[in-house]
Structure formats: C-alpha cells, structure tokens
Amino acid sequence: MDLYEYQGKQVFGRFGIPVSEGRLAKTPEEARAAAEELGGPVVVKAQVLTGGRGKAGGVKLAHDPADAEAKARDILGLDINGHVVRKLWIEQASDIAKEYYLSITFDRGTKQLLFMLTTEGGVEIEQVADENPDALAHLHVDPLEGFQPYQARRLIYGAGIDDPGEQKQLLGIIEKLYGCFVGSDAMLTEINPLIVTPTGEVRALDSKFTVDDSALFRHPDIAEMRDVEAADPQERLAREKGVTYVKLDGEVGILGNGAGLSMSTVDVVVVAGGRPANFCDLGGGGDAQGVVDALEVITSDDQVRSIFFNIFGGITRCDEVARGILTALDQMKIDLPIVVRLDGTNAEEGRRLLAEAAPPNLHVEPTMLEAARRAVELAA
Ligand code: GDP
Ligand code: MN
C-alpha cells in the first residue's frame, strides 16, 4: 500500500523525523483557512500517488491565504500522470539552501535493507544514478544484525557531507528512518528532498512510503489510511469480496486458480494476440460462491468482451469447479462468451458436467493455448 505524501510525513513524524507543519484541504476555501491557521507563506501540494508533482505544476508556493486559495484552485482537478488531484496538503513554506536525498529500500539480491544518500537531491534519483553515480552513497544493513550508528556515519561520509551540524542531525534522521522502516513494515521510505535550511536545519520536505500489504494487519492505523475513493472501482469491489484481482486494460477477462497459473494465463492471452482485462486468482477453492464473487468483479468492468476460465485441478477437483461455474451461471445472468479449460484431477468428470448442462455461451476447449485463442477470437 502506497501512502500519500501527507500520510507518509505523519508516520515520519511519529518516528521523530522532522517535518513541516501542515493541513489537509479539499477545496480552495479550506486551503485558504489552512494558510490562515499556519500563518506566513505556504506551499500548496497536490496529494496524488505519483511522483514528479513539482514538474507537473502540482506544487506551488503561496504568499498569503488569498494566494493559497488561488493556487489551490489551479491545482485541484489537475491530472498528474493520470491521477486527478482531489486533495491538497498545505504546508508552512521552507527556505531551502540544499536538497539532499535519503531512502531505504529492499535489496532482494543481498536480502538486506539498502540505504541511499546523496547531496544531489530534488531531482529524480534515477537521473543521479545515471549521470553521477559516484555522488550516490549506498549502504546495506543486515536486518538480523540490525542498524548500528557507525553505519550512518559511513553513509554520511560516503555522500561527502562534512558539515558537523548536518552530520549530527543526519545521524539522528538515518537512525529514525531505519526505525520507521522496520517499525511500520515498509518496503520503501524515501525523502526527496531532505532539505537543509539556510540556518542549517535538516528536514523532510517530501515522502514516498510503501507499506507491505501482508503486514497491514499489524498496523491498523496505517491500514485505515487507505483511500477507498481513489481506488479503481473494480479493485475496490474485489477487496470487499476478498477476491484477488488486478485490473488491466484489455478485453479478455481471466480467472485462474493459483497465482502462477493466473499469471501464465495473462501471458498466454497476449501470446494468442489478445489483451487481458484483469488478473484474477480464484485461489485454492473453486466453490460456487468464490466463482460468483470473481465473476461479479470481472463482469463489472464493461471493457470485458469474453471470459477465460483456466483451471488446473490439483487439490481442487475440476468437477467441483465445473459445478461452481454452473451454479454461478444459474445465479447470475451473464451473456458474455465464457471459455473454459479444465485439466488435472477429475477433469473428464468436470468437462462432462459442463457438456451436459451446455449453457449456450459456454465453450470448452482442451488446452490452455486453444482456449486462449478462442477467448481472444470471441472478444474481437
Ligand atoms: P515531487 O515533485 O512530487 O517530488 O514533490 P516535492 O514535494 O519533492 O516538491 C517538489 C519541489 O518543490 C521540491 O524539490 C522543492 O524544490 C519544491 N518545494 C517543495 N516544498 C517547498 C518549500 O517549502 N519551499 C520551497 N522553497 N520549495 C519547496
Ligand atoms: Mn519529491
């Protein structure tokens, strides 16, 4: 789960990382009131789950409350990389002398946490990595050994930061960011820019924060931050129904049992010349309710032109899945063509059940590739 900037900063604040004071606003009037409360110049910042807001005109300085209202009017409704701005973060403006960058990610190769620090912040970090790789200090931390203060010193020297005041503050911020990353089961915490003010104060001006979905049950306060309005309507419905579903752009709706088979199904539809409308994993079961739930989610996407069931019976028996499909078709009215490929345990029995019931829009194919081709053909 990705957090908005203001949510990430809220979590930063809880772990003692210095951030600026701010308020959330959803209308120009609220932005004005927020600026009045905060006093002095403010920054009006689009809250969208994408980067590069500054470049897209989503971050603007405002001198006074009337200006904040005007800037809010400009930014609300803006489309930034396909994300429409509905919320603003109004923050006390900072004076900036330097912009640094600090992040922690997973390095899956070494199975360790990876810190990155550079004094070349403010721009996209990929650009620094490409153009000036020596400026980017890397440091691995073994999660089993935990973080040690000497590691922060090594990182700071590695980035070439020699001001004692900055070093002292950075030591604290690096250690706190580690605590924040581990303590919130994050997969990414990034501060860009981490600024130094003209008076030498170091502070987080932005946040990029991803929390491991599988760990959200341990963080109800963070789980609650999820923005249900911003979620795709099908994905929201899927979450409510407990269906594993990812929306894609195509026309062939897909249901597989097991994540691996479902992903292969997405691939094989592409191989057959089609475009998958979604990834959907029925999981181990194949009971009627599971099938009904998945079909409800898939058919609620009106881009879907055909549906492809790709089932491999292991522990789940194909006859059970076939009954599930037939019960689901009884319960709900689906006119879209449905292509079924059943293989594995009790596949013959499953195919026999489908052949006997023979709903007019149901097509049974013997192999995965043939079924994919048929589903693609029927979606055309
Ligand atoms: P991003 O473009 O989505 O990464 O959004 P940021 O929050 O990083 O803001 C983009 C840029 O706006 C920063 O790199 C800063 O240069 C500038 N900016 C943001 N907040 C302030 C502020 O309080 N004062 C000043 N002077 N500039 C700011
Ligand atoms: Mn940024």
Which properties best describe this structure?
single chain, 380 residues, alpha+beta, Dna Ligase, domain 1, D-amino Acid Aminotransferase, Chain A, domain 1, Rossmann fold, 3 domains, seven-stranded antiparallel β-sheet, four-stranded antiparallel β-sheet, 13 helices, 38% helix, 25% strand, elongated, binds guanosine-5'-diphosphate, binds manganese (II) ion
CATH architecture of the largest domain: 3-Layer(aba) Sandwich
Radius of gyration of CA atoms, rounded to a whole number: 26 Å
Low-confidence segments, given as residue ranges, are none
Task: Say which CATH homologous superfamily of the largest domain is assigned.
Answer: Succinyl-CoA synthetase domains
- SSE-based structural type: alpha+beta
Instruction: Let me know the average pLDDT.
Output: 93
Largest sheet: 7 strands, antiparallel
Report the bound ligands by name, code or SMILES.
Answer: guanosine-5'-diphosphate, manganese (II) ion
Number of domains: 3
Please report the first level of CATH classification, the CATH class of the largest domain: Alpha Beta
